[in-house]
Amino acid sequence: MNKFYISMLTFFCLLLGFTTSISAEVIHQERSLYRNILVDDKGDSRCLKFNVKSNKTNQSCLYKSDPQRLVFNYTKLLFSGLLLIEEPKNILIIGLGGGTMSNTLHQLYPKSIITNVEIDPAVVKVARQYFGFLENQNITSVIQDGRIFIKRAIIKKQKYDWIILDAFNGDYIPEHLLTQEFIQETKSLLNKDGVLSANTFSVSDLYAHESATYKSVFGHFFNVRNYKNSNRIILAANGKLPSLTLINQRVSALKDRLTPFGVDLEQVSNQMTSTSIEQDWPENTKILTDQFSPANLLNN
Amino acid sequence: MTEQQNKPSWQNLFIYLLAFSSGFCIMGIELLGGRILAPFFGSSVHIWGSIITVFMLSLSFGYLAGGKLSTQNASLKKYGFIFVLASITILPVAIWSTPIMEVIFLNVEDSRYGSLLACAALFFIPTIILGMISPYSVRLLVTDKDSSGQTAGKLYFVSTLGSALGTIITSFYFVLFFEVDNIIMVFSSVLGMLGVFAIFLNKSAKPLNVNAIGAVHE
Question: Which of A45, A84, A188, B67 registers the highest number of CB atoms within 10 A of its CB?
Answer without folding.
Answer: A84
